[in-house]
Design goal:
Elements (H helix, E strand, L loop, with lengths): L7 H20 L6 H30 L3 H10 L5 H8 L12 H11 L2
Helix pairs in contact: 2-5, 3-4, 4-5
Length: 114
């Protein structure tokens, strides 16, 4: 195909401009791919669910008749084992579930202010 000489600079400019806009948009403009946005949405929803379950965990801790013994066990555990101790206490097992949730246990541990 023969293109007129006067059209070639316009075509080159459009191609270079499109590449430039794409690079700037993804680098500094905050554009992301669909996969990245999906991953971020899943992480944000997980964080919101955990944050909404922390009051339930704290309420379970407050209403537990063996609270003092369980808190003593959690405090006696080393720093990196406290989450597992809280999970063993049963406070990170949400109503309607069979197993404790590690993320909820970690967030609840921060709120218990041991």
């Amino acid at each position: 195909m023969n293109t007129p000489e006067w059209l070639k600079p316009g075509i080159y400019g459009a191609v270079i401009g499109a590449v430039f806009v794409g690079v700037v948009g993804f680098s500094w403009g905050g554009w992301v791919t669909g996969g990245t946005s999906n991953d971020r949405a899943v992480a944000m929803s997980r964080n919101d669910v955990v944050a909404s379950m922390v009051p339930v965990c704290l309420d379970m801790a407050r209403s537990d008749p063996a609270r003092a013994d369980k808190l003593a066990t959690i405090r006696a555990a080393s720093t990196y084992q406290r989450r597992d101790a809280l999970m063993t206490a049963g406070w990170a097992t949400m109503p309607g579930t069979d197993a404790p949730d590690r993320d909820i246990a970690q967030a609840c541990l921060k709120e218990l202010e041991l």
